[in-house]
Amino acid sequence: MSQSVGRVPQRRNARSNRARILATARQELGRNPDITLEELARASGVVRRTLFGHFPGRAALLEALAEEAAEALHTAVAVEAPVAEPADRALAHFTLSMWPVGDRYRMLLALARRDLGVERVDEILKPARVRVTGIVEQGQRDGVFHPHLPPAVLSAGLEAMTVALLEEVNTGAFEDDGTRVAVATLIAAGVPEERALTVVDDAAATAAAEHVADD
């Protein structure tokens, strides 16, 4: 019995150490993509053996971060949009909800080509791409978005713009809570600037009120 009880704190400590390492990795890899695992262990406040016990190499650590990002994105995408919500508001709401996830895991973009591979990053982003393509298709049918590009192509362009802005956050050249990105996204989709500003302000206020209610 005592041996079983003794394992519980160890498992809790292991989970706590793993979470701390991943949280530190998100922060430190954004600052320095070339950080070594030894340096990361010190920054996490754990010994080298502890870090390697959870992640035997750089690839294992990055894959854990990728899985964490994919799960967070899937959870955000799974939130149902209000029924009959206009497409411009739906796109604003979705962009605002996605930005914190993208901001949290933006360091993966710097590692995409060298470590994770573009295909892995595309796989992570696919659920969001599918949702945005559906919103764009609806908006084009309703005359809210310009029909100058096919929905999937316009969706890919909006995604590329968002990724580029996240990369600018990585460099320190840009900072946002998601509102400016949402406005830029609507304008790129064909919404007039004044309308885009109004829609995003309304969506942001609604999201803030929902967050307060959830707390």
Automatic annotation (TrEMBL):
Keyword terms: DNA-binding
Q: Mind listing where the DNA-binding region sits, in residue ranges?
A: 36-55
Q: Which residues cross the membrane?
A: none
Domain (HTH tetR-type) spans 15-73
Name of the protein in question: TetR family transcriptional regulator
**Taxonomic source organism:** Streptomyces incarnatus
